[in-house]
């Protein structure tokens, strides 16, 4: 049975309390650190009014990456299914 724990994280100067599975805590904290690093990088590269602008850019970066990976996986799965059907017809 997985135990949920409550952790506090700081993103863009705000503290958020988040409930996560104990075994996922390290991954979650690493994700938070990655977001914080990306916020700092965007702050150096672009003019911004407030940190919400930076958060929006980081979010857009990650959603774009996610969508590309998802599309690549769908294409790969389609090719895999076609090859499996080909092998099945040979057998």
Could you provide a short overview of the structure?
The protein is of the alpha+beta class and 91 residues long. Helices cover 67% and strands 18% of the residues. A two-stranded antiparallel sheet has the order 1-2.
Walkthrough of the structure:
The protein is an alpha+beta fold. The protein has one domain. The chain has helices spanning 25-45, 51-90, and strands at residues 4-11, 14-21. The longest helix is centred in the last third of the chain and has 40 residues, at 51-90. The model has no long low-confidence stretch (mean pLDDT 91).
Main attributes of the structure:
91 residues; alpha+beta; two-stranded antiparallel sheet; 2 helices; 2 strands; flat
SS class: alpha+beta
Q: Could you tell me the number of beta strands?
A: 2
Q: Tell me the Rg in angstroms.
A: 20 Å
Domain count, please report it. 1
Task: Characterize the quaternary organization of these chains.
Answer: single chain
List low-pLDDT spans: none
Helix content: 55-70%
Overall body shape = flat
Counted by DSSP, the helix tally is 2
Order of helices and strands: EEHH
């Amino acid at each position: 049975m997985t135990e949920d724990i409550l952790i506090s994280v700081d993103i863009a100067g705000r503290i958020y309390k988040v409930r996560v599975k104990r075994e996922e805590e390290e991954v979650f904290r690493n994700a938070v650190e990655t977001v914080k690093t990306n916020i700092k990088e965007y702050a150096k590269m672009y003019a911004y009014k407030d940190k919400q602008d930076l958060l929006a850019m980081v979010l857009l970066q990650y959603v774009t990456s996610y969508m590309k990976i998802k599309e690549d996986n769908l294409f790969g799965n389609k090719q895999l299914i076609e090859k499996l059907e080909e092998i099945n017809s040979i057998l």
